[in-house]
Design brief:
- The complex is a heterodimer of chains A (112) and B (110).
- The termini of chain A are far apart.
- By secondary structure, chain A is mostly beta strands.
- The model of chain A has no long low-confidence stretch (mean pLDDT 94).
- Chain A is built from no helices and eleven strands.
- Chain B is mainly beta.
- In chain B, strands 2, 4, 5, 9, 10 and 11 form a six-stranded mixed β-sheet that branches. Chain B has a five-stranded antiparallel β-sheet with strand order 1-3-8-7-6, with no helix packed on it.
- Chain B starts with a strand and ends with a strand.
- Classes of the chains: A mainly beta (112), B mainly beta (110).
- Chains A and B meet through strand 4 and strand 5 of A and strand 5 and strand 10 of B.
Chain lengths: 112, 110
């Protein structure tokens, strides 16, 4: 039982490049979330999903896209990376919004 | 006004001290409340849920005041291992999303 895993752990991109961050959970959770964490800002919700095939925008969705084709996976895409997207990205899942969120170890992304 | 606000910190306390963290939230329709702990360069992990009647887990006590939209966390007999950032978390009025406060950093000193 691995919980929530994220791939990759670190990445450096040049401005304009694209990439996809993968989140996987093996707890059969319906809800999955992508956050970014910046110094002094706390965690901010980018996109979330309430089930397979569904996605919705969070607080800071611009510049990101997501897909949830399989229940266990939630992908976060950056089509054209910008230096403002330099951050630590966390994926999380939960059985229900009123219950605990389980987080992945994070992806540290630097855009130069 | 931010949705969730916390003491700015950092808090530097000696071992054995009692420390209290405060959190206020703006959405009166929030339904669920939590305290998470985040160690440096690690992911957040649930410390405890917060119930209307208040709840205790060992050295940790959490309280909720819905009328004042205020949550607190009390740590008694603090240990070096309690050093971390403490995040206050509430759900939004749709009950689908978690809103995180900016966190309060605690350093427990020997």
């Amino acid at each position: 039982n691995a919980g929530v895993t994220q791939t990759p752990k670190f990445r450096v991109l040049k401005t304009g490049q694209s990439m996809t961050l993968l989140c996987a959970q093996d707890m059969n959770h319906e809800y999955m979330y992508w956050y970014r964490q910046d110094p002094g800002m706390g965690l901010r919700l980018i996109h979330y999903s309430v089930g397979e095939g569904t996605t919705a925008k969070g607080e800071v969705p611009d510049g990101y896209n997501v897909s949830r084709l399989k229940k266990q996976n939630f992908l976060l895409g950056l089509e054209s990376a910008a230096p403002s997207q330099t951050s630590v990205y966390f994926c999380a899942s939960s059985l229900d919004p009123g219950y605990e969120q389980y987080f992945g170890p994070g992806t540290r992304l630097t855009v130069t | 006004r931010k949705e969730v606000e916390q003491d700015p910190g950092p808090f530097n306390v000696p071992e054995g001290a009692t420390v209290a963290f405060n959190c206020t939230y703006s959405n009166s329709a929030s339904q669920s409340f939590f305290w998470y702990r985040q160690d440096c360069r690690k992911e957040p992990k649930l410390l405890m849920s917060v119930y209307s009647s208040g709840n205790e887990d060992g050295r940790f006590t959490a309280q909720l005041n819905r009328a004042s939209q205020y949550i607190s966390l009390l740590i008694r007999d603090s240990k070096l291992s309690d050093s971390a950032t403490y995040l206050c978390v509430v759900t939004d009025n749709y009950g689908q999303n978690f809103v995180f406060g900016p966190g309060t950093r605690l350093s427990v000193l020997p």
